[in-house]
């Protein structure tokens, strides 16, 4: 199965997540971009993602970064909607607190998509502020990864 044209991919992936009642949908995230090089996931701020002291909970930021990391690897799978991925490890370094007035935008970029393991680097931003950086390693399941 071919991955959709990049212009349609974000919408197709969002619909796929919604059809499966995914956690990402439940927290309100929105897939903005998916390509063989990168993925962008936006999380609009709402009161349920705060940590009680006026900032976005760090675990929520890490979750959106993890989503961007795994989504940018999906185009490298032979069947991007049926094959699956699993997080092996993510490392997130928080640079500053995520303010409660702005959306969190996570970007995942492919470092390597191998036959069974993919590696990505991720960032989280609010406006012009870089709030976190990270790296992820993911197991690529299914019929194997495609060249890419």
Describe this structure in words.
This protein has a 6-stranded antiparallel sheet with strand order 1-2-4-5-6-3. 37% of the residues are buried. It has one domain (6-140): Thiol Ester Dehydrase, Chain A (Roll). β5 (117-126) and β6 (129-140) form a beta hairpin. It has 3 helices and 6 strands; from the N terminus they run ααββαββββ. It has helices at residues 6-19, 23-26, 58-71, and strands at 30-34, 38-43, 85-94, 104-113, 117-126, 129-140. It is globular and about 45 Å long. It is an alpha+beta fold and 148 residues long.
Question: What features would you highlight for this structure?
Answer:
6-stranded antiparallel sheet, Thiol Ester Dehydrase, Chain A, 3 helices, 148 residues, alpha+beta
Q: SS-based structural class?
A: alpha+beta
Q: List the domain count as a whole number.
A: 1
The level-1 CATH class? Alpha Beta
Give the terminus-to-terminus CA distance: 15 Å
Give the % helix: 10-25%
User: Can you identify the CATH superfamily?
Assistant: Hotdog Thioesterase
Q: Name the CATH architecture.
A: Roll
Give the tally of β-strands.
Answer: 6
What ranges have pLDDT less than 50 throughout 5 or more consecutive residues?
Answer: none
Describe the biggest sheet? Answer: 6 strands, antiparallel
Would you tell me the overall average pLDDT? 87
Helix and strand element order: HHEEHEEEE
Radius of gyration: 15 Å
